[in-house]
Specification:
Length: about 350
């Protein structure tokens, strides 16, 4: 039996990128055993994956003794291959001490005062890894470096063939699917556009006062319902939006869904005409599993960074919320959204 361990001690979307590689391992080695070191943020997602045999949860806020016992449990096993790809210190520490035939890693490069550094450092990389892929930090990135391709390159080193155009793996939850079908029948009844609101919307110019009006205008333009999703959102722009929606609750063309679980959220994304966010990592990456259309609202100077993360198996478009110097007004952003939605419209049966 071949054992593999993936270090993914970060966020939801970051794990989903790896799922097609894990699935390819399971297909090639039927009796393989796959462990994942995750964070409290992505544990509830990862534990649902039947292709994962063991899940370790690292919480940096845990007592030192608890973290030591976790470290000890991880390194007592022998692995065929380890994938240290999250850049976290605890992950790199475990990876250094574990026994593995192949140690594969992602090295994060960054610049300070015109000097280049890497995490892990050069000596660690030289003495520990059998194969590495380099990835430049956000502040120093000058061109697109497609991260899913780098992960596929690491897998190919040990004979795992998994193309970046392969769908990511996300098994929907049957109970949530049934719940979604009822919600769709009762509330939606037709094609809709999903817009996910979170902290990345805060810096949009005048959003606190003009979000609702722009949503109404967009809905009238596309002539389809809009589903608004959000999770634990207490920003002023969102509180104002809820008040506006309550005042106009008889108009059911804009529907608010708050604090849904991930599996219901995935169903909303899957069945939308397109999904819009200011680069919600989960939304963008789960679209790589269900072929959803995605519109990302980002700053222009972040284009290379977010393009480095996007799945290559989905229909992905970008709307800018700023130039290299200035923020765009909210009405311009929504006008651009309307145009991008129509471009999807013209290539499908809307």
């Amino acid at each position: 039996m071949k054992k593999f361990i993936f270090f993914r001690n970060d966020r939801l979307g970051d794990f989903i990128i790896l799922t097609h590689i894990i699935l390819s391992i399971k297909k090639k080695y039927k009796d393989s055993h796959i462990s994942v070191l995750c964070s409290p943020l992505n544990y509830n997602l990862i534990r649902k994956y039947k292709i994962i045999d063991k899940v370790y949860v690292y919480n940096k806020k845990s007592f030192l003794l608890k973290r030591f016992f976790l470290f000890k449990e991880i390194i007592r096993n022998s692995y065929f291959a380890s994938f240290a790809v999250d850049g976290k210190s605890f992950s790199n520490l475990c990876n250094f001490f574990i026994k593995a035939k192949y140690k594969l890693g992602l090295v994060y490069n960054y610049k300070i005062l015109n000097f280049w550094f890497s995490k892990p450092n050069f000596l660690y990389n030289y003495f520990t890894f059998d194969n590495i892929q380099n990835f430049t930090s956000k502040n120093n990135l000058k061109k697109i470096e497609h991260l899913p391709q780098k992960f596929s390159n690491l897998a190919r080193y040990i004979g795992i063939k998994s193309k970046v155009t392969n769908k990511y793996y996300f098994k929907y939850d049957l109970k949530e699917h049934i719940k979604f079908k009822k919600f769709y029948k009762d509330k939606i009844k037709n094609k809709y556009v999903l817009i996910h609101l979170d902290e990345k919307w805060v810096d949009i110019d005048t959003i606190n006062y003009h979000l609702y009006q722009n949503l109404v205008k967009l809905q009238k333009t596309i002539k389809k319902k809009i589903i608004i999703t959000s999770y634990n959102n207490n920003f002023q722009y969102f509180l104002n939006l809820k008040k506006d929606l309550f005042k106009n609750k008889k108009d059911n063309k804009i529907i608010l869904v708050t604090n849904s679980n991930l599996f219901f959220f995935e169903r909303l994304i899957k069945h939308s005409f397109c999904s819009i966010s200011c680069h919600s990592g989960f939304l963008v990456q789960v679209a790589g599993s269900n072929s959803s259309k995605v519109i990302d609202i980002i700053h222009k100077n972040d284009f290379n960074w977010y393009s480095s993360w996007k799945p290559k198996n989905t229909n992905y478009k970008v709307v800018f919320k700023s130039s290299l110097k200035n923020l765009f007004p909210i009405n311009q952003i929504f006008s651009d959204l309307s145009s991008k939605i129509k471009s999807f419209w013209n290539n499908s049966l809307f």
